[in-house]
Design goal:
Length: 147
């Protein structure tokens, strides 16, 4: 075939066709919108409290209290428990709890990982609410000693 000079249909296309680009972008937006709710990081929801803040609410004796000492000793409602039997001990204590709340308290020197591990164990044992309680007898930081 001979190429004819000046033919209208044979000129090169110089304009950019953005329709495929817009289609691809819209498809990506739809994919990200549908996947975004599933990509949320799952965590532990914890209520922070101070000593004495629960006055007038559910009795403290009805909540499950887990205490971690600096030496690594665990107690559930005042009874000493070894770390391997913590989950069954919390599950037994939750049966008696009205609102299935676990309150975790630890010494200042404990690692955050230990407390998070206890919170995770309590959640797996069936706790509906989790709280971290600061001990009322904790020493104040940054204070000057009298003398």
């Amino acid at each position: 075939m001979a190429i004819g000079a000046g033919a209208k249909g044979e000129e090169p296309i110089t304009a950019i066709n953005v329709t495929p680009l817009v289609d691809v972008c819209l498809v990506l937006v739809i994919i990200f919108m549908t996947i975004a709710p599933f990509a949320m990081i799952v965590g532990i929801k914890v209520m922070e409290s101070r000593a004495g803040a629960a006055k007038g609410k559910v009795s403290a004796s009805e909540n499950v209290r887990v205490r971690l000492t600096l030496a690594g000793e665990l107690t559930v409602n005042g009874l000493r428990v070894n770390p391997q039997s913590l989950e069954p001990a919390i599950a037994r204590a939750l049966v008696k709890s009205k609102d299935r709340m676990v309150i975790v308290s630890a010494d200042d020197g404990n690692h955050v990982g230990q407390v998070v591990s206890i919170l995770d164990t309590a959640q797996q044992a069936g706790a509906a609410k989790l709280a971290i309680l600061k001990s009322a007898s904790a020493p104040a930081r940054g204070g000057r000693s009298k003398g």
